[in-house]
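queue> pop job 88
queue> type: inverse folding (structure -> sequence)
queue> payload:
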């Protein structure tokens, strides 16, 4: 297949959706497909590097959260669309909306992914307290963009259920964003001077690193814990001040893939404190490296799906309960190592290879449906709905 992926930006490696798009593009190419990307920063031979679009006020705010907006450059984009079998959209913003209209004009099959969780928007806009705001954003995205698609990629069953409950009528394909098989357990576990506790994620309000820092401060092992927070974001300075004030030994960093794998393989415990999460590929990567997770039980997050029992769940926004769960795993080393192996095995079903196969099926369903509609005047029944 010739697949075109449209995403506002592709050159910001601290953005989870960008990394997902890159993984999918590279994986599809490795499976023999021709893939082009339309985005700010696209630099492949067959890509379209669009200019950045400036939006007063919004551009400045979005930049803090590693988001840029692409400018619709019709003629450049039309040229790459001309040979496309399918166009796949990552975000629901203006570039994607204009490109969707162009693809429809050209009769090209299209699919979309749902990566922008409304709760992420409301948290970062400091509007989470506004009654009904998240439902309004779900509705806005549906009316503005997603109503025009027959097939939507949902990274988790959680978000598929959210879309269904908010009136999305498309076929919802539950396909994990997938992790690279390079993330795997080490042959031997490191013997660390301190307990190495790690969390990966953007340093933003909804990710709740502040809860983790507070939990470490309340842990009976506080003086024996070294906490590493991997990621960038607008709360970095505030979190650094919190850690210093509470006397928590904490390192802030952002690591390239090979160093991230080494860090996960040499750590003792992974914590995912986020309140809002469509999937959390970072948590899967940690589990795949043999780390036992401790995960917020937030009902706005898909990440609790990775917990194998209650020992790996803590009450959302409750640092005391998180400290209790962390302490259990840190003082029960043999059980932690045993469960680490079980967790690593449980992660295998989320490997990228399986996700790519399911994405291929979604693309083929749409291509076949469009072809049938042209030939017979009605839509074909999808080959399968991926679960």
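queue> result:
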């Amino acid at each position: 297949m010739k697949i075109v992926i449209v995403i506002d930006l592709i050159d910001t490696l601290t953005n989870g959706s960008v990394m997902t798009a890159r993984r999918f593009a590279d994986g599809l190419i490795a499976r023999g497909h021709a893939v082009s990307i339309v985005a700010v920063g696209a630099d492949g031979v067959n890509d379209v590097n669009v200019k950045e679009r400036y939006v007063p006020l919004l551009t400045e705010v979005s930049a803090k959260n590693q988001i840029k907006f692409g400018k619709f450059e019709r003629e450049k984009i039309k040229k790459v669309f001309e040979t496309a079998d399918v166009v796949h959209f990552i975000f629901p913003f203006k570039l994607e909306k204009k490109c969707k209209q162009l693809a429809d004009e050209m009769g090209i099959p299209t699919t979309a992914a749902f990566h922008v969780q409304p709760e992420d928007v409301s948290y970062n806009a400091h509007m989470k307290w506004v009654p009904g705001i998240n439902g309004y954003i779900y509705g806005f995205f549906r009316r503005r963009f997603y109503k025009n698609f027959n097939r939507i990629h949902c990274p988790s069953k959680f978000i598929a259920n959210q879309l269904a409950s908010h009136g999305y009528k498309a076929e919802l394909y539950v396909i994990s964003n997938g992790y690279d098989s390079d993330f795997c357990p080490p042959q031997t576990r490191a013997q660390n001077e301190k307990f190495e506790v790690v969390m990966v994620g953007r340093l933003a309000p909804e990710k709740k690193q502040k809860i983790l820092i507070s939990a470490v401060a309340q842990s009976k092992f506080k003086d024996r814990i070294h906490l590493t927070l991997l990621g960038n974001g607008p709360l970095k300075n505030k979190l650094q001040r919190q850690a210093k004030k509470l006397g928590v030994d904490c390192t802030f960093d952002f690591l390239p893939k090979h160093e991230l794998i080494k860090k996960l393989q040499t750590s003792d415990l992974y914590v995912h404190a986020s309140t809002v999460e469509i999937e959390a590929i970072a948590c899967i990567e940690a589990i795949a490296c043999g780390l036992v997770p401790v995960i917020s039980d937030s009902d706005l997050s898909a990440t609790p799906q990775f917990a194998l029992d209650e020992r790996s769940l803590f009450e959302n926004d409750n640092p005391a309960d998180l400290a209790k769960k962390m302490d259990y795993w840190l003082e029960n080393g043999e059980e932690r190592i045993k469960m680490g192996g079980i967790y690593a095995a449980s992660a295998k079903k989320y490997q990228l290879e399986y996700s790519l196969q399911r994405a291929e099926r979604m693309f083929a369903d749409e291509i076949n449906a469009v072809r049938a509609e042209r030939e017979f005047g009605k839509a074909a029944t999808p080959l399968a709905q991926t679960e």
